[in-house]
């Protein structure tokens, strides 16, 4: 675990790296009451959730109850609460996430609903790389990506390893795999150009 998160290669962990190890070891999920769902969901997902939310907000008050939330979760193919009608076994993680978002256990608004969805669907935080990289830097990364990517328009672990080595960033194969796992939003085992740019922001 040390080699995977010790990106600097110092042989020891800083506080931030230690927190990453701690979170991974305990398999912590983000807390819905602490995240900004807009950093996790794209426009299409938010539009879908908005439609599902409005269908269940029958009085147009901008809030739904927990029963309606259960219906929404099922419609999005996510697990429901343990106490929901039709549940056959306890779902401790779902119950915990909902309690974190709605401590009072009453009605919730659209933002709370989106935050719950982002956590239960295990969405990863999105980053706008254009806020960190200049146009010239993006162009340079594009050139490197095209040189190392496959015909499918993605870059595999080996290609990423070679590309980073060419930039003077020497990481172990296990560290490369860990990076791909962290930034591969579509879980294909390889990165597209957008995902590569986000990775470059994080390790730069």
Automatic annotation (TrEMBL):
UniProt name for this protein: EF-hand domain-containing protein
Domain EF-hand: 1-28, 44-79, 171-204
InterPro entries: Centrin_CML-like, EF-hand-dom_pair, EF_hand_dom
This protein's record includes keyword Protease: no
Keywords recorded for this protein, A-Z: Calcium, Repeat
GO molecular function term, any single one: calcium ion binding
Coiled coil: none
């Amino acid at each position: 675990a040390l080699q995977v998160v010790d990106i600097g290669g110092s042989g020891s962990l800083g506080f931030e790296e230690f927190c990453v190890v701690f979170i991974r070891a305990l398999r912590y999920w983000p807390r819905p009451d602490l995240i900004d769902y807009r950093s996790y969901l794209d426009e299409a997902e938010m539009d879908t959730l908005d439609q599902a939310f409005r269908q269940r907000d029958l009085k147009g008050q901008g809030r739904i109850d927990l029963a309606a939330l259960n219906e929404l979760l099922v419609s999005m193919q996510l697990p429901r609460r343990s106490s929901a009608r039709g549940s056959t076994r306890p779902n401790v993680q779902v119950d915990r996430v909902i309690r974190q978002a709605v401590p009072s256990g009453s009605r919730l608004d659209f933002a709370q609903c989106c935050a719950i969805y982002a956590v239960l669907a295990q969405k990863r935080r999105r980053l706008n790389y254009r806020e960190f990289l200049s146009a010239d830097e993006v162009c340079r990364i594009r050139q490197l990506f095209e040189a190392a990517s496959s015909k499918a328009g993605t870059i595999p672990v080996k290609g990423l390893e070679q590309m980073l080595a060419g930039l003077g960033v020497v990481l172990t194969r296990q560290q490369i795999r860990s990076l791909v796992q962290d930034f591969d939003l579509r879980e294909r085992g390889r990165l597209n150009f957008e995902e590569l740019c986000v990775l470059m922001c994080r390790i730069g």
